[in-house]
Automatic annotation (TrEMBL):
Keyword Isomerase in annotation: yes
UniProt name for this protein: PhzF family phenazine biosynthesis protein
Organism: Streptomyces gulbargensis
Gene3D superfamilies from the UniProt entry: Diaminopimelate Epimerase, Chain A, domain 1
N-terminal signal peptide: none
NCBIfam families (UniProt xref): PhzF_family
Amino acid sequence: MRIRIVDAFTDQPFSGNPAGVLLLESFPEDDWLRAVAAEVNLSETAFAHPLPAGGEADWALRWFTPTTEVDMCGHATLATAHVLRATGRTDGPVRFATRSGVLGATAEDDGSITMDFPTSSLTPVAAPDGLARALGAEVVAVHDTAAHLGDLLVELRDETAVRSLAPDFAALKGMSSRGVVTTAAARRPDAGYDFASRCFFPAVGIDEDPVTGSSHTALAPYWSARFGRDDLTGLQGGARTGFVRTRLRGGRTLLTGHARTVIDGELHA
């Protein structure tokens, strides 16, 4: 059985966010999917199988962290679309049936892939007790992304504060159902991106996710309202980084990035 490791939201190997991708004929038992994801031990492993022609989606898609199945994952969706395109399994737009509804992915002329995701809602909330201490940084504002993501979106003072975080992951674990997304405006207007972010998800077994597509469905409306523009670019990551181009289109957020296959091998299980 072929398994691929794809670096998403980057055109360079060993950067962006790596995801495992397995193309199947059907979904095996959940215990097997969880065991494979634990063995791969990346933030997410994607499992996909083709659906009958004529339906609302072309492929069924599920995502697992090393410990649990998740409702939405951007970088592993990008990685899956990249593999389908690279292997000739699709030569046009592809629609995925997921726990978050039907998600689309379209290849662009420059080799990037644009995904169509639902935009997250944002509700201002008070900072949970101990949040600033757990992050080790001053908190400027906090928004709840509700059930759509299950994250807290936390604005910090500046990009330097975001990039230098060394959180207490055990303390962050109970702050939200999925994780904490930290963000700040880019330190320079000519930086090539508009905002920076880092994402911490210890509640689902991922201390830090290098480049999180799904979080940009909340980051996009947050910073678009601040900057007065619907088209933005985000830089995410600490040790590994990647870029996500975002475009707001009504209740949908378009997420664009590149991907690069770095490992293509056989799974003996």
